[in-house]
Fold this sequence. Notes:
351 residues; nine-stranded mixed sheet; binds the ligand O=P(O)(O)OC[C@H]1O[C@H](O[C@H]2O[C@H](CO)[C@@H](O)[C@H](O)[C@H]2O)[C@H](O)[C@@H](O)[C@@H]1O; single chain; alpha/beta; four-stranded antiparallel sheet; 9 helices
Amino acid sequence: MGLQRSPSNKPNVQPKPIPGTKNEENKVNGYSTTNEPILLNSSYNSWVVEHPSALRSFDRMMKATKGKRIVVFLDYDGTLSPIVNDPDLAFMSEKMRKAVCKVAKKFPTAIISGRCRDKVKDFVKLSNVYYAGSHGMDIMAPPRAVKSSDGKNHNIAPDKKGGEVLFQPAKKFMPAIQKIYRILEEKTKTIQGARVEDNRFCISVHYRQVREEDYGMLEETVKSVVETYQEFHVTEGKKVLEVRPSIEWNKGHALEYLLDTLGFSNSSTDVLPFYIGDDRSDEDAFKVIRSRGHGYPIIVSSIPKDTGALYSLCDPSEVLTFLEKLAGRREKSSSYRTPARLRVKAIENLK
Ligand SMILES: O=P(O)(O)OC[C@H]1O[C@H](O[C@H]2O[C@H](CO)[C@@H](O)[C@H](O)[C@H]2O)[C@H](O)[C@@H](O)[C@@H]1O
């Protein structure tokens, strides 16, 4: 099924240039250089044998989806948009927007991001997808009673704007998060290049533009602040420290929540979730798909890395090609009627 791979799946990978924007190995004094392609080394070639290209495996994957319902989950930064120095400028291309929109017309589609929900929505600008911000701690979903995988019932409050509900398991931490945000802004302002981003239910402290010799100081500052808040902890992403409330909730739980909301129970074998993501926080979602035993966890990476994903895509341009192929897939049984509430209002730039 979805998680199985046949030995014939091994691609004959030739070294190819890495787009500079995604290559974490292209570093000078800790800064990533851009637009300087280097050749993939042999360790990448053996890694990609273990994590075959989702593009090369596409036809085989599609065969396995016959008669099943596909649900698509997408991370934002590094997946739909390339990694850039300024987090406010991480735009996705029109082509990518169009592809996601087309995919979402065919299959239920959700964007699960570390960003705050409103910010990722502003970047994506599509109304036919579900959004889960703050690493899944801020979900916009249809009203429905749900039990999360930790076995607890969670309160869901109707959104003022319509029939949808907000699912915000970390709501009670808001006052503390705002306090921590202000302290971090104050304490890091003397560290050149440091940047604190308010992601609503979590905080990102960026060091992409910090001098390498100041990394330690920044990390110490962040950790010493968070240490005084017992209900919070720090995780790491791509040149970012993420301050999060210590609750049993991550992108994996968000994936389960959304599948449940869409009517697919935990044990349902009729659904094949695709999850495409590039960072550590996406590993939680890969793990959930693997434990379900059905679906496709796909990592976006141009360098070998430890991952629970079974397939790979090199960079956002390959994600685009994959989504275009998925949108172009012809099969009656898979067609998905977007709920009226989510139906695409004519989006100016898609006309
Ligand atoms: O879950 P994601 O949607 O991937 O969000 C994870 C973090 O993404 C953003 O930071 C990353 O992308 C930035 C823009 O390309 C880059 O400058 C930064 O170095 C990366 O870590 C976002 O700004 C963070 O808040 C998210 O936590």
